[in-house]
Amino acid sequence: MNRLSGDTALALAWITALIASFAVLFIGEVLGQTPCVLCWFQRAFMFPLAVILGLGLWWQDRRVGRYGIALALGGASVAFWHLGLYVGLIPERIQPCTATGPSCTDENQLLFGIPIPLMALAAFTLIGLLSAYSLKEKQE
Q1: Which CATH number covers residue 37?
Q2: pLDDT 10s digits, 87-134
Q3: What is the dihedral of CA 89, 40, 72, 85, to 10 degrees?
Q4: In whole angstroms, what is the distance from residue 13 CA to residue 51 CA?
Q5: Is residue 115 left, alpha or beta, with left meaning phi > 0 and alpha meaning psi from -120 to 50?
Q6: Which helix (H) or strand (E) holds 29?
Q7: 60-95, pLDDT tens digit by residue?
Q8: Which residue ranges traverse the bilayer (predicted)?
């Protein structure tokens, strides 16, 4: 049975971060959808993931998975909070969005019928798991 190698796991984590980074840029710059406050915080975790994991691959340093885990946990926390606001589990009175900006909970948070916070949470979770796997794999 073929197992996923640590290098492959790290490459998949980097590709996920890269796709997610380009996707949010497409949503904002091409589709013209202004990100809410929580989307900005999620970007603050995702964009460095694409750079750091890419550099780790370039330098063949699988230990970079440590940083992938840390950034993915931070981003997943924000995405989880955002999703809680979106689905109504967290009262709107404590949402960080202002009345003059885009809302964290309105219909602009959907893409192809899927909530953007859910997509972000899935991406951060996948990146974190792949980064952790890349550390677990024995270096030979």
Answers
A1: 1.20.1550.10
A2: 888 876 656 665 555 565 566 666 788 888 899 999 999 999 999 999
A3: 0
A4: 11
A5: beta
A6: none
A7: 997 999 999 999 999 999 999 988 888 888 876 656
A8: 42-60, 67-90, 110-135
Return the amino acid letter for 80: F
The residue behind tokens 């909530």 is 115
Question: How many domains are contained in the chain?
Answer: 1
| Nearest C-alpha neighbor of 101 from the set 26, 39, 35 | 35
* Residue 100 counted as domain residue: yes
Q: What is the pLDDT of residue 28?
A: 82
Over residues 2-15, the mean pLDDT reads 88
Q: Residue 130: how many CB atoms within 10 A of its CB?
A: 26
**Whether this model's pTM surpasses 0.70:** yes
Task: Specify burial of residue 86 (Cβ count, 10 A radius: 0-12, 13-18, 19+).
Answer: buried
- The answer to whether residue 99 sits within a structural domain is yes
d(CA 46, CA 26): 14
In a domain, 39, yes or no: yes
Q: Is residue 138 part of a domain?
A: no
Q: Residue 71 sits in which domain range? A: 6-133
